[in-house]
Amino acid sequence: MGKRVVITGIGALTPIGIGKEAYFSGLKAGENGIGRITRFDPEPFTSQMAGELKDFDPTDYMERKDARRMDRFCQYAVAAAHQAIDDGGLKLDEIDCERVGVIMGTGIGGIETLAEQVLVLDRKGPGRVSPFFIPMIIANMAVGQISILYGLKGPSLTTVSACASSADALGQGLRMIQRGEVELVLAGGTEAPIAETALAGFGSMKALSVKNDDPTRACRPFDRERDGFVMGEGSGIVILEELKHAKARGAHIYGELIGYGATLDAYHITAPAPEGEGAVRAMRAALKDADISPAEIDYINAHGTSTEYNDLYETKAIKTVFGERAYQVPVSSTKSMIGHLLGAAGVVEAIACLWAINEGMLPPTINYEHPDPECDLDYVPNQARTAKVNTVLTNSFGFGGHNAALVIRRYNGD
After folding, report:
1. Are 240 and 189 in contact (CB under 8 A)?
2. b/e per residue, 44-63, with b = 16+ CB within 10 A?
3. Three-state DSSP class for 162?
4. Which residues are designated catalytic?
5. Is 339 strand, coil or helix?
6. Which three-class secondary structure state does DSSP give residue 85?
7. Which residue numbers in the chain have pLDDT < 70?
């Protein structure tokens, strides 16, 4: 058997809670983190709501000077890394940091800073553009800042595959450890897209919900009345660690990452392939990589964006992969609670899967009120559910036709 990879630390910043305890509590309660945007006046926009982080203070995790030189997406990443390192009990002075990698996914990077500095250029001229402009916006800087602050010197990557970015980050971390390049990887994703430019762009695409009269009920995956996704923001990081290394330092193990599959649709820049064909191949690849059958999956955390075609084709893809058993496997979308964290979605959903395994609870799909005859699976409607969960599958799909699937299993001490 090749190298086994376990998860030994968690950092999470989500619209329903900062830190794993708050996030897990929110999942259990079916909390709603979506509301009218407060960061700027959303009135001119077709969609006026988002899942904003509440009460985030970057100086809880870094010096004020450093925070000023980071876009919000980097601040979130550093905070999640701090949480994961602390949660994982990592003593960085006692491990070989040349054997520690960092892999972070982001769909956009520093869009808030980009928009601000374009206005500075337009209004005040090139001499007033910040010297930190480029380091603040480039997507790889989340990895760069984490490695600088914590002295992590192993091979590292930034994955940019739209809304599959952080799922791909975990998958690439799995491969890096399996190849023996590192013993430990901080893997995850970060996104801070709640900026006027992004809101306008997604709105022009007609991708966002326009149920502005009741933001808390706008994100409704698999519901017949769904009309688009709702943006969220935040970050998640997990510590992926080679099993023997984790056991040698007495680490707490949340679960084992046993499978990863990634595919491309080769179909359309934004729309999913008909019948979820690419998603089918990604799920099957992950199951094959894990060397398990669909019968062994106890729960599926769906991509579940609350858009018409994603939810329909993901449902069809699950039926294709699981056959008649699709009706017996619980499926839910945590985006109903936190919105769509874009490049950070995959990792925060993988963390929700770890909660399901360790707590014996399934996170709900809230706002599920009007069954869609074409989306007819068990979506764990509205309330968390007690269940025995050993093995989970989590899906992430992105613009450009990216599909990623991960399989996570309970660690039984063997």
Report:
1. no
2. ebbbbbbbbbeebebeebbe
3. coil
4. 163, 303, 340
5. coil
6. helix
7. 1
Tokens representing 149 are 């602050």
Reading the block at residue 370, the tokens are 């009007």
Provide, for the chain, the percentages of residues in helix, strand and coil under a 3-state DSSP scheme, each rounded to the nearest 5.
40, 20, 40
Tens-place pLDDT, residues 256-305: 999 999 999 999 999 999 999 999 999 999 999 999 999 999 999 999 99
User: Facing residues of 51 across strands?
Assistant: 232
Instruction: Report pLDDT digits (tens) over 109-140.
Output: 999 999 999 999 999 999 999 999 999 999 99
The answer for residues whose C-beta is within 8 angstroms of residue 402's C-beta and 6 or more apart is: 161, 162, 163, 164, 168, 262, 264, 265
Tokens 């009920």 locate to 217
In this prediction, residue 414 carries a pLDDT of 83
Q: Note whether 36 and 283 are within 8 A (CB).
A: no
Question: Helix 72-87 crosses helix 141-150 at what angle (to 10 degrees)?
Answer: 40
The closest alpha carbon to 85, from 150, 142, 41, 26, belongs to 150
